[in-house]
Amino acid sequence: MAFHRLSTCAVALGEKGVALNEDTHSEILLHVNGVKHCLSVDNRTTLLDALRERVGHTGTKKGCDHGQCGACTVLCDGRRVVSCLMLAVAAEGAEVTTVEGLGGDGELLPIQQEFVRLDGFQCGYCTSGQICSAVGMLAEYAEGWPSAVTAPGSEPVLDAVEVRERMSGNLCRCGAYPSIVRAVLETAARGEVTG
Amino acid sequence: MREFAYQRVTQVREALTLVAENDGSRYLAGGTNLVDLMKCGVEAPTRLVDVRSLPLGGVREGADGGLVIGATTTNSDVAAHPEVRRRFPALSQAVLAGASGQLRNMATVGGNLLQRTRCAYFADPSQACNKRVPGTGCSAVDGAHHNHAVFGWSRHCVATHPSDMAVALAAFDAVVHYETLDGGGEIPLSEFYPPVGDTPQQETVLPSGALITAVSLPKAALSPWSRYRKVRDRASYAFANVSIAADLGVHDGVVRDVRIALGGVASQPWRARSAEAFLRGGPASFGTVPGGG
């Protein structure tokens, strides 16, 4: 099987002179937590599976695999996304941050510290997704983004109602929501850089 | 999932040519619906043409003083845009009422318009579905159908269009702009989704192979107080049981103009034109509406 870099491939010229790449596999350069990984992937590979099975970062979890639970949430160029619905080939060129890339040198981010301090989890399966989502969400809030519960014409103020709405893409089957909401609010109150 | 080729494009003509050359080609943007349906076996493209690198993003002022929203603008960026929030608040609200923060960061305006119904029978290839495989019948008619269409349906299909964004766009008389290899065109959103009839597989009137490039909002919003309301099975992150986008222009206590679009009730955003006609020209009071107040 021959592999072709997406950016330079020219496998065959179609009738109208546009390069047609017929390969169902691609060689991609994936940027994960500041490290570049050169991978040969089946185009069907999701970013989630590439992270877990090819890069070896199993902190990102597979829950529903249909974009409904948020367990696979990572940051792409600083924005939270569900990695189960993003193809690995489509993630080439983006800076992907997983839970392994948050904090560093044994230091936890404020959001991670608050999850620990306030018991923002029980079984822990949704936790890495919750934390990546919270990091992305707090950045969105800092940019002034409204949510569905923000009154039109006014600027959002982060309270429990806003946190619940903004974090609704992350399910927790243990039901640790009250502590998750508190952990996010306490983090916001600390006002420290989170990402 | 069926194997497929993947190609990222930077020019609109390149994208149009790739799709025109292969019937199995599909445009890929955020992928939040398409990739999911590929996993379910409902969609089986042989080539994905990734259009996110096309120069079609961003919100700008239109020639008529309205707004032009590029097709690859993410849902998040539309909802947060200051001019959308100020002039078309119902649109910002509608977008924020849909999906989750993660999905809105991925999903684009063009893809939102072209998303497929969330009818459970459509998403399950073991079930009969005239939309998925024309002529096989409709499992939903006799099945679980509490979230299906109440307006404009036919015995061939009772599925609803799931977009919140499109409901607000319908209220604002938005126009969809597209390109084809033979030239560009535009379609009013009110005509974008055809009646179901006996062709539920015909979901839009876009020409074959066309690429949505932008959605424009005419200047003539009636007020800065347009609003979107949505009722669903849970407080957040669920599709609509029913939703409404409404805008009201009042002068001297009289309803000068009014726009009402309903979501979650039909295969297209449903403009309540009879209700609009009833209210237009009447007094702007709660008493206008039977049972209102």
UniProtKB/TrEMBL annotation, chain B:
<dbReference type="GO" id="GO:0016491">
    <property type="term" value="F:oxidoreductase activity"/>
</dbReference>
<dbReference type="InterPro" id="IPR051312">
    <property type="entry name" value="Diverse_Substr_Oxidored"/>
</dbReference>
<dbReference type="InterPro" id="IPR036318">
    <property type="entry name" value="FAD-bd_PCMH-like_sf"/>
</dbReference>
<dbReference type="InterPro" id="IPR016169">
    <property type="entry name" value="FAD-bd_PCMH_sub2"/>
</dbReference>
<dbReference type="Pfam" id="PF00941">
    <property type="entry name" value="FAD_binding_5"/>
</dbReference>
<dbReference type="InterPro" id="IPR016166">
    <property type="entry name" value="FAD-bd_PCMH"/>
</dbReference>
<feature type="domain" description="FAD-binding PCMH-type">
    <location>
        <begin position="1"/>
        <end position="222"/>
    </location>
</feature>
<dbReference type="InterPro" id="IPR036683">
    <property type="entry name" value="CO_DH_flav_C_dom_sf"/>
</dbReference>
<dbReference type="InterPro" id="IPR016167">
    <property type="entry name" value="FAD-bd_PCMH_sub1"/>
</dbReference>
<dbReference type="GO" id="GO:0071949">
    <property type="term" value="F:FAD binding"/>
</dbReference>
<keyword id="KW-0560">Oxidoreductase</keyword>
<dbReference type="InterPro" id="IPR002346">
    <property type="entry name" value="Mopterin_DH_FAD-bd"/>
</dbReference>
<dbReference type="Pfam" id="PF03450">
    <property type="entry name" value="CO_deh_flav_C"/>
</dbReference>
<dbReference type="InterPro" id="IPR005107">
    <property type="entry name" value="CO_DH_flav_C"/>
</dbReference>
<protein>
    <submittedName>
        <fullName>Oxidoreductase</fullName>
    </submittedName>
</protein>
